[in-house]
């Protein structure tokens, strides 16, 4: 059984910045209403390596411990929310590091998806794969309008989508839309994402996205933290509980898939394409 994570006492309203911490790869600030903003800042594209994944999970633990009113997740990049898992961590990998990568991703997903406080994301740029995964974990998604894309393109990089991530997606958009998109690794434009319900609203810029995210968090001002956190976890328990039982098998499948020669070849081609794209800029 997935352990329930309840906020047992009222959330505190802390003075501005009292919880603020700046890690190497993230920045956490808290406003004077007690809402935490966690900013990804691993340049250039917030790709998720072991260190960023672990730092994110640690900071989320801090947000919970300090009883912030809620969390807004965003990025310091002007055009990318997160490029997903760091592809260089999966290409010709050291197996110990690959294990750490996947277990750290599992920890982050489980911590964010079951967070006992309200969560919202201000998606201020592209959000492929692991970037979309983090957004899907939040309770409310606002995305800045522009020529950005969001979606789970794992199959396009040779990785089958695990059940817990399919389940996370199917809680947000219809199973039909999810199946069509995930089987083919399709990415959505901002307008398409809004139409299928992958995002809840659009924003003119990052400041607007953060403001809309905070407005969502404030909806819970008069809701008991225990009522909120228990109801949220009941909605999500059918995804969280099987995940908790199958973590080891999920890890072994991931390593097996990533180490297949054809997946390695595909990852090598993607790294090459990204390099060529940069050179052509
Ligand atoms: C049976 C069950 C099996 C279990 C296993 C299942 C596993 C499922 C996984 C589910 C969990 C979630 C995890 C998913 C896996 C992934 O996340 S894979 C990563 C997929 N990501 C992508 O495909 C994105 C690739 N990047 C881009 O498309 C673009 O970079 C961008 C649109 C994000 C941004 O474009 P732009 O702003 O033009 O920047 P670029 O010039 O392209 O890049 C700048 C710079 O960053 C490097 N980079 C980009 N993306 C990544 C990345 N993901 N990892 C590492 N590095 C990246 C790029 O190479 C450039 O580097 P240099 O400046 O040239 O050094």
Automatic annotation (TrEMBL):
For this protein, the record's Pfam families field holds: ECH_1
- Which ranges does the record mark as transmembrane? none
Task: Tell me which CDD domains the record gives.
Answer: crotonase-like (cd06558)
According to UniProt, the name of this protein is Uncharacterized protein
